[in-house]
């Protein structure tokens, strides 16, 4: 058995190993990636692609950023794991960094977005049990919160729930951007509302300002928690640290993951000061949550975003990207709508999006179909003006071809 990951297998040989040994929970594209640098990746045959997917909003500071690489190498040679039975400086500093860049309070660390949303669900349940025996959570139709049993039940999409019944009880669904629908779903057993500021897997659908501000007011009036899922839209993706900041609202707690580690797995929740004592020892835990290595990676990501002005770059390059797509929309009837914020962009088509995604890949651009008719673009926050121009040229050619 060859366990050396630095060999030179062909795409076909790698695909053969996948077919034999990897469970078929995904449908790989047929491209075997080998390395990356900045906004670019190369496959094992040496073909180059402009990465406007970023591992689904994960490699926000680009591939192989030297500051991130140095931080991981240095910490890996010092201390990788301790368990949470001991203090370590990187976790303390990361909690401080996240809390002071949001609403204060405290953090719990885990490994993924689904785990972070599980933590929010448990937080709401525990808080509700301490405040009148409330335990139900309102979530939105067309949302996405993860693949564990609780988070796929929270996800308002029947297609991800099918076959996993009976699902856990405790979730009620409302329509996104419809405040009256949320009001109708709230009962005297409701502990919290969980919502994305921008529905990512649901097709890059931003919340309206009226909806989110109304939701904040409603939760305050009813004495329930407003929790926000920032797993995909957070950490600079929209040009702000957190997508909710653009709406002038503040949640009681929010989840994050994906871009936090720049490619190294880490997730977290951040809670407001009034909720820091809800979890007590024994209520929740994660063996690998917040290791020295993961927290060091996340601290490096935060430093890169600030030192390189990537929040502003996300706003500028996002505006450039969306303006360019709107220009193409005027010339191609198949392009129906451009929507999003910052570098979280959706292109709505009048036809299935997967053939368009495949053609872009053939032309050297990585994007992702989401839903049936939406192409999703999530380039790294480091993408440059000329790289956005190149992406638009490739998209224009795909429009002509298809």
Blueprint (SSEs and pairs):
Elements: H1 11-21, E1 33-37, E2 40-43, E3 48-51, H2 54-57, H3 66-76, H4 89-100, E4 106-110, H5 113-129, E5 136-140, H6 149-154, H7 158-161, E6 171-174, H8 179-185, E7 190-195, E8 198-199, E9 205-206, H9 209-222, E10 225-229, E11 253-256, E12 267-271, H10 292-307, H11 310-331, E13 335-341, E14 344-349, H12 354-362, E15 365-366, E16 368-370, E17 374-377, H13 385-401
Parallel strand pairs: 3-15, 5-6, 5-7, 7-10, 10-11
Antiparallel strand pairs: 1-2, 2-3, 4-12, 8-9, 11-12, 13-14, 14-17, 16-17
Short description:
The protein has helices spanning 11-21, 54-57, 66-76, 89-100, 113-129, 149-154, 158-161, 179-185, 209-222, 292-307, 310-331, 354-362, 385-401; strands spanning 33-37, 40-43, 48-51, 106-110, 136-140, 171-174, 190-195, 198-199, 205-206, 225-229, 253-256, 267-271, 335-341, 344-349, 365-366, 368-370, 374-377.
Question: What does this protein look like?
Answer:
- It is a single chain.
- The chain is α/β, with parallel strands linked by helices and 402 residues long.
- Helices cover 37% and strands 18% of the residues.
- The chain has 2 domains: 26-61 and 309-401, Aspartate Aminotransferase, domain 1 (Alpha-Beta Complex), CATH 3.90.1150.10; 68-307, Type I PLP-dependent aspartate aminotransferase-like (Major domain) (Aspartate Aminotransferase, domain 2, 3-Layer(aba) Sandwich).
- It has 13 helices and 17 strands.
- The longest helix is centred in the C-terminal third of the chain and has 22 residues, at 310-331.
Strand content: 15-25%
How helix-rich are the residues, as a percent range? 25-40%
Strand order in the sheet with the most strands? 4-12-11-10-7-5-6
Mean pLDDT: 96
Task: Please give the CATH architecture of the largest domain.
Answer: 3-Layer(aba) Sandwich
- Name the structural class: alpha/beta
Mind telling me the CATH superfamily name of the largest domain? Type I PLP-dependent aspartate aminotransferase-like (Major domain)
For the largest beta-sheet, the strand count, sense and barrel status come to: 7 strands, mixed
Q: Given the structure, what is the number of helices?
A: 13
Number of domains: 2
**Amino-to-carboxy terminus distance:** 44 Å
User: What is the CA-atom radius of gyration, in angstroms?
Assistant: 21 Å
Taking pLDDT < 50 over at least 5 consecutive residues as the criterion, the unreliable ranges are: none
